[in-house]
Structure to design on (356 residues):
């Protein structure tokens, strides 16, 4: 058992499941948005604003944003723990990795807050 | 004449590794890569590699043959030679001790982690612990692993985290005991694997399946472990 404190779910299974579910949510959102554009070739601002200010669409967008955040956290965490390691770049790796991990977590969290502000500000 | 390029490194003499070129007369025969190495060693006794059974059972002569990990003793030249050239390097990702010999301590440390032995603390029956033919069949494709390390050293996840990721070979063995009806430590074994590294650093690229000289499928075994974790944790 390897201990981790900066991974999203702490457990490998939890991270794995979040990664899969969030991928499906993002796919569904993408299919919906592309489908909506095709179904409404004469889309104007009023219609677009109406769609995005409806509660179901806000919820769908928010769940997708949370999925992107979780997916990115898990994915980038994996990349950082693969390549920024003492084995590959020397004894300073742990400090560098923690800085990158905390930076990634901060940016991801700020994006989520910003996205909520945008969604509910429409 | 066959052109052979071999990775050479003797830390007591060489400042860094280099590739040495040889020419070998195979008399047009489709001999095994190990036979070529034996011919070369007869002329140059300083060439070092591991070998033992010479029939794909002991797993000693795992090496990187023309870019693909395999056992030298069961790899014929017809599968390994490209444009009349054979390139032989040590298995990648583990420290080189000398020439084609690698330090496998990290590989064995991961194997030890998965407790590769039967755990069953109930009193032993008079004769033996019986299995049905169906229960025994679950071990097929798992028990045949010879720990040659061809799979784990072909796996990028193992290259980057050999101290944390168990690796395909260890995980195949982990499932061999998880699948064994006579083993009673299933929950304990699963609990030891549920972290973001031990099992889940596998991203399913299947290099392990491509190189296994015994034709085994570690990726499938890892999928079974994941399913067991899901069954137990949801």
């Amino acid at each position: 058992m390897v201990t981790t404190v900066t991974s999203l779910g702490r457990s490998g299974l939890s991270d794995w499941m979040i990664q899969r579910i969030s991928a499906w949510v993002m796919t569904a959102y993408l299919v919906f948005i592309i489908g909506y554009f095709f179904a409404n070739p004469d889309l104007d601002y009023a219609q677009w604003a109406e769609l995005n200010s409806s509660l179901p669409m806000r919820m769908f967008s928010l769940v997708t944003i949370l999925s992107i955040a979780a997916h990115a956290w898990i994915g980038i965490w994996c990349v950082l723990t693969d390549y920024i390691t003492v084995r590959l770049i020397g004894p300073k790796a742990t400090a560098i990795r923690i800085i990158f991990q905390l930076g990634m977590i901060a940016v991801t969290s700020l994006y989520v807050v910003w996205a909520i502000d945008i969604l509910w500000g429409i | 004449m066959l052109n052979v390029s071999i990775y050479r490194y003797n830390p007591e003499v060489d400042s860094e590794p280099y590739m040495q070129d040889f020419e070998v007369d195979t008399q047009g025969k489709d001999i095994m890569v190990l036979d070529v190495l034996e011919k070369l060693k007869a002329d140059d006794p300083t060439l070092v590699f591991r070998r033992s059974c010479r029939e794909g059972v002991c797993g000693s002569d795992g090496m990187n043959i023309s870019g693909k990990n395999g056992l030298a003793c069961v790899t014929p030249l017809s599968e390994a030679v490209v444009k009349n050239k054979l390139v032989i390097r040590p298995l990648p990702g583990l420290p080189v001790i000398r020439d084609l010999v690698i330090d496998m301590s990290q590989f064995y440390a991961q194997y030890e982690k998965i407790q590769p032995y039967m755990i069953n603390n109930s009193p032993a029956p008079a004769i033996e612990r019986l299995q049905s033919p169906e229960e025994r069949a679950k071990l097929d494709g798992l028990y045949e692993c010879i720990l040659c390390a061809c799979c784990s050293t072909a796996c990028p996840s193992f290259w980057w985290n050999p101290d944390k990721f168990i690796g395909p070979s260890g995980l195949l063995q982990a499932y061999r005991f998880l699948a064994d009806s006579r083993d009673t430590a299933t929950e304990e074994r699963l609990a030891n694997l549920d972290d973001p590294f031990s099992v889940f650093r596998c991203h399913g690229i299947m290099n392990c399946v491509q190189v296994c000289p015994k034709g085994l499928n570690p990726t499938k075994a890892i999928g079974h472990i994941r399913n067991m974790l899901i069954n137990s944790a949801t």
Q: What stands out?
A: The interface with chain A takes residues 157, 160-164, 191-201, 226, 229-230, 233 of chain B (CB under 8 Å).
